[in-house]
Amino acid sequence: MADTLGKKKIALIGLVIFSVSSWMISGIEQDESLQFLAYRALQSFGGSACFTAIFALIRMRFEGAMLNKAYSYLNGILAFVPVSAPLIGAYIVENSAWFTLFSIMAVLGVVSVVWIMLTLPADSGQQKSNNSAGTQQGFVKRYLSVLGNIRFRTYLFFALVAQTLFIYLLTVAPMYLMGKLGVSQILFGQMFMAIAIVFMVGSFIAPKLNQLMNIKTIIGVSLSLIVLGAALMFAMSGIHAWYSLIMPMVIVAVGCTILLSSSPANALADFKENAGAASGLYTATTFGVGALVSALFTKLVDSTDLVQVAMVYGVSALLALAVFTINKTLRADTQKA
């Protein structure tokens, strides 16, 4: 859709859907669970459409080091928001009704619509011409051509590992800190804010690392940090305190952040003209499949047992390291650099 209608239009349509559905949620009653779920699904759809369009716009407007920097900053914001949300949400709900959250989302959506309309340029004539030529391939063929690119699949895999472990963190933290240790929601949010800051700082540092190290070294270091964090969590699993989770997770967060910040530019490097399809496939896979695998971990593993949680992180990163050692694409990209 983004390649057909234009990235700016899709971003605006997504934001309008997000804003309207947020406003609709703010007006429903507490017993209207079906309407709540329907509007939430619509809200998620709108947000996803906007995000994919922005992801594609970044790919079309930047190259090389600037592309890496742009995706790193975007990932920093994306990681900061869900991790910091518990603290912000707790303060809002403590002083206002629950639906105030969605009223705020609706207002932010409207502000974003105005901001994009005024500041974001539309696709250029050359881009529209390229997009038109690309759409003649057909919907399915465009996605198959993206999936057929081994470079895309390689970096998508590593991004998926990092995204899955990040999403799993969002499940583990409340279950362990609030569920097992009985930490209050406000205190939980304050603890979790440390992870949010790590994600944001790591995302801002990632472009510097891309200048100092080749992509193979960056991925190796990132996965090694996740293994190190998992080992520390395993060692501290007998200590039933908040820092037995937060300290290892800070290390894991650094690894995930660097990996998530460095992967998109490399995965989408060959798709400037087909940026919409490639970005859509990339984001749908990392977020969609990542959420499904994370849910599977939650189903199969006792997420209040840090030994089992550490095994999830450690084994996942070690399997990714095994792929890392035999992957030919990484070797080729390193030689090019």
UniProtKB/TrEMBL annotation:
Residues making up the signal peptide according to the UniProt record: none
Annotated keywords: Cell membrane, Membrane, Transmembrane, Transmembrane helix
All copies of domain Major facilitator superfamily (MFS) profile, residue ranges: 1-331
An MF annotation (GO) of this entry: transmembrane transporter activity
This protein's GO CC annotations: plasma membrane
Entry-linked InterPro entries: MFS, MFS_dom, MFS_Efflux_Transporters, MFS_trans_sf
Subcellular location, principal: membrane
SUPFAM superfamilies: MFS general substrate transporter
Subcellular location: Cell membrane
Transmembrane segments: 37-58, 70-92, 98-118, 155-177, 183-206, 218-236, 242-260, 281-300, 306-326
Topology with respect to the bilayer: Multi-pass membrane protein
PANTHER family from the UniProt entry: CHLORAMPHENICOL EFFLUX PUMP RV0191 (PTHR43124:SF3), PURINE EFFLUX PUMP PBUE (PTHR43124)
Name by which UniProt lists this protein: Major facilitator superfamily (MFS) profile domain-containing protein
Highest classification ranks of the organism: Bacteria, Pseudomonadati, Pseudomonadota, Gammaproteobacteria, Vibrionales
